[in-house]
Amino acid sequence: MRRSIATVCVSGTLDDKLAAAAAAGFDGIELFENDLVVSPMAPAEIRKRCADLGLSIDLYQPFRDFEAVPPELLRANLERAERKFDVMAALGVDTVLVCSSVHPAAVDDDDLAAAQLAMLAGRAADRGMRIAYEALAWGRHVSTWDRSWRIVERADHPALGLCLDSFHVLSREVSPAGIAGITPGKIFFLQLADAPHLSMDVLQWSRHHRLFPGQGAFDLPGFVKLVLAAGYDGPLSLEVFNDVFRQSDPARTAVDAMRSLIALEDRIAPHLPPAPALTGHAFTEFDVDGRSGPELRSALRGLGFAHTGQHRTKPVELWEQNSCRIVLNSAVTQPGPAMISAFAVTSEDPARSLDRAEALLAPAHPNVREPGEAELAAITAPDGTSVFVTPPGDEWRSDFLPTGAGAAPTGLLAVDHLGLAQPFDHFDEAGLFYHSVLGLDHLATEEYAAPFGLMRSRAVADPARSVQVALTVALLRRGEWAPAVADPQHVAFTTTDIVATAAALTCPTLPVPDNYYDDLAARFALPDDVLATLRRHGILYDRDPSGGELLHLYTPVFGGRVFFEIVERRHGYTRFGEPNAPVRMAAQRHRRLTSNPSSGTP
Amino acid sequence: MRRSIATVCVSGTLDDKLAAAAAAGFDGIELFENDLVVSPMAPAEIRKRCADLGLSIDLYQPFRDFEAVPPELLRANLERAERKFDVMAALGVDTVLVCSSVHPAAVDDDDLAAAQLAMLAGRAADRGMRIAYEALAWGRHVSTWDRSWRIVERADHPALGLCLDSFHVLSREVSPAGIAGITPGKIFFLQLADAPHLSMDVLQWSRHHRLFPGQGAFDLPGFVKLVLAAGYDGPLSLEVFNDVFRQSDPARTAVDAMRSLIALEDRIAPHLPPAPALTGHAFTEFDVDGRSGPELRSALRGLGFAHTGQHRTKPVELWEQNSCRIVLNSAVTQPGPAMISAFAVTSEDPARSLDRAEALLAPAHPNVREPGEAELAAITAPDGTSVFVTPPGDEWRSDFLPTGAGAAPTGLLAVDHLGLAQPFDHFDEAGLFYHSVLGLDHLATEEYAAPFGLMRSRAVADPARSVQVALTVALLRRGEWAPAVADPQHVAFTTTDIVATAAALTCPTLPVPDNYYDDLAARFALPDDVLATLRRHGILYDRDPSGGELLHLYTPVFGGRVFFEIVERRHGYTRFGEPNAPVRMAAQRHRRLTSNPSSGTP
Lengths: 602, 602
Known about the structure:
- The structure is a homodimer of 602-residue chains.
- The first copy, chain A, is of the alpha/beta class.
- Chain A folds into two domains: 3-268, Divalent-metal-dependent TIM barrel enzymes (TIM Barrel), CATH 3.20.20; 278-595, 2,3-Dihydroxybiphenyl 1,2-Dioxygenase, domain 1 (Roll), CATH 3.10.180.10.
- A nine-stranded mixed beta sheet of chain A has the order 14-15-16-13-9-12-11-10-17. An eight-stranded parallel barrel of chain A has the order 1-2-3-4-5-6-7-8, surrounded by six helices.
- In chain A, a hairpin with a 2-residue loop joins β19 and β20.
- In chain A, α15 (514-523) packs antiparallel against α16.
- The longest helix of chain A has 21 residues, at 71-91.
- Chain A is elongated.
- The relative contact order of chain A is 0.08.
- The mean pLDDT of chain A is 95.
- Chains A and B meet through α2, α4, α15 and α17 of A and α2, α4, α15 and α17 of B.
């Protein structure tokens, strides 16, 4: 199907928006009137620019407050429409979106609405144009798709049809099932937007919180199937009002948008290489420099890791304990804090994983490698992290020459999850990336109050929980009063006996306040000896409603930006200990204060 | 009255919060449990820290989900309470906030709730403590103040009283009038928060959008009077959950909070020097450097200004046309874009204006001046701009030696308003500052979609509209994809004949797209010749619902950050042409693109 995007979805002026839509591969656009009005390009020039960019203009929108009004207002409205038809003629666009009236003078009379819309359609038809009528979810009288359809049926004019917008339909309680029965040819346009379920005024919900398909909670595949069942063959067009997208790089946003449509189409009629099962974390790679490297090495040693392998040709070290593997890469060109530059996951079928990624606009880039090295291709996640996809087994280890060093294990068995703080503009993009490209599922989104502002967290994982990535973001972009480590990253390792592991560690762990344990005692009926053990080792505790338990501990921040976590999951606990994240943040802040009392930012 | 602040109102860990509250002059705090739990300070240590800082701990909060539960849950809840009483004893705090239950096991039974709360109060009394019961606006069964009061009355225990929170009371439809009739001594605690009127889920409204008194739409003076009428003599305590305050500098936020309380008390029982009437803009001062200075001079000349005065001792120039006065200050120490560093308003009684400012934590700082110069004292607005307050008349001009130059007037008569983009963290603080310190009124807040993100705008003005400042802010803090001139500032001048003025100008004005006029023609029934005139001169147009009209035009950005506007107000138009702001932004962006096509950011 053809793919379109409304210019309102992305930031910038019309030049920016058209360039972004074309670069992301869209076939067409919906031209949002405000973008035209503020543009110095004449309509004919916009037409030419779009043609040059390979974009059709599929819809002009919106035309507001037209129908069911007294005669003198109708006259003015028809005059207003003629002016817009002039603009549309110059643009070469034949369909205009007329959304249901919110005007105080509009009356509650479907016959009148139908008659006046038929009159408008007649005027449009005279100019080779047509009217797509849409029920706004907050329309004064017409606010549901079925009522807009009754009016269009009643008007019975060939130049009058429906515009269906998934948000307006799915945000209301009226079932969309009947859409499949709409007369073929009468759905003139289809607009798609996802959204989280929110309990708020529907207009504000629509204006600020729409998302691209797959980023929210609506059943868009089901909705589109109903529309297709009614014979719709126009474009799938995105119309997403979103506070973040309105102010982030339009080129990035447009690619995110396109990925959402490709993934949606694949859910409706699978055509992409299916996402192979991911079976585990192969390794996690940190970039380190002369300052952060020694800190990380010392921390790993204290965690019971050994430096087991040395890369044949590069200053890259492999550190291991059981199935936990950390790669320290000192071949960085710029000094800076340590960071997770890459992680590798094992895939049942790496080639297919990469084919799927490419089809979803995340093409693999080959790792720079020397002759004889294992071939590893990576895709780039929205935060810039490279994601390597490797076959099961240890082929990638062949690049490392064994050092012969052995670990002094502390019981760390495997990677439980990675924690990656996301750049503010790309949180929803990241969720969609991991879901569509790698086939990971979104887990529940959590919000919590942290010492330096509200946080949002959303994890992605495969069904078997072999690969888990916890994504976090601040609810507001950080300003000057931001924590010194505003975007920390971490690796969490599993153990089956966290107390034994804690006792065996020789690296520093994060001190947990006594107040925390006093509160724990009040909240949960934990036996005194358990509580004493937790307290002694600085182990945090969480319990879910089904009785699942998490015991976990943190290290301080090493190398400027990274830390480690050790988790023991009991009785099927599946979350990530979010309620304890503020405790960690405060403790990391306190540690910084006490080690450097004069530091400015928290 | 004593003034308190809940630790949840400001950002940081407990150390940060206590330091900020003390520095801003608060007498006490409400200790929010989460802040205690994540603190490494033991309760006794917190008690000592507070005492050292001169802060009492007036309330411990919250204790949730206590009342109206089955027996075994009651037992567990009482046990939980005893643990909290232990903590309170160590802290030396005697009152705990118990908020109405949201627990699924809570039953709808006021007698049971009263009996269990009486039992809890008995336990508290045994330890010299007391219970302040509060109806959460979203409580499962108890969600209004009158119901919470019925339960407290029924329980009839001396250690059980009410906590009233202005948000929970005023966000509901139940009238607060009856509060004045509550038995004296039974309101144990008073929490204050303002909020804008929002149509959304009340819990989300409360968690994210509370404001300090005077920053929102609630009638807090009226509310507090009712509480005082019931004999309340405890502290006025702020409890404000706000996404911005949670992540901005706590020291700043605490001062903003304190100012809000001082101003609120003054509205209840006036005690501050009343704000004298402001009668006009005396001058507006720009900092310029070797690069921006010539650009500004050339622009002013083109606007019909003349360089009429030269400062006796400093590289400071006075430019004038009628009552429009611009001061260009080249004595800047750091080069950078031009900016409005100061503006002067005339006051009926400057000394009283300054006394009031000082009482509201905005102390005047004397201008650095040489012997014989006019004395001018300035207060600092939240965005760093100096606000001079001068007597009527031209005393301040005595520092300038006349140059003898005469203007070639273009009809600019006076300053209509200043436009000051505000730093993200300080928008609400700025509104309160201008309102409380200078006595300006808030006009309506407007939100609009602009090319680089959503914008919020709120103007402040005196009743006679002699002094007007339009404050704007982006709804999200700007990121990398931000307009090159992200925080522009401007001065708008009035004319009574904008067409004649436009024809007389010799500086560049901002080109307005033809599309804008085509749309104007569709939106308003403007005569063709009027439209042609507007189009010819690049004059924008707005009309308000009462028929007031604004005709205005903009200049491009000069000196990197500032521009000018010329406005003609007709038939009582009182707004600031906000619907046309996106046209200006797009045109300024376009101008930048065409003059420097390779520039990175918009």
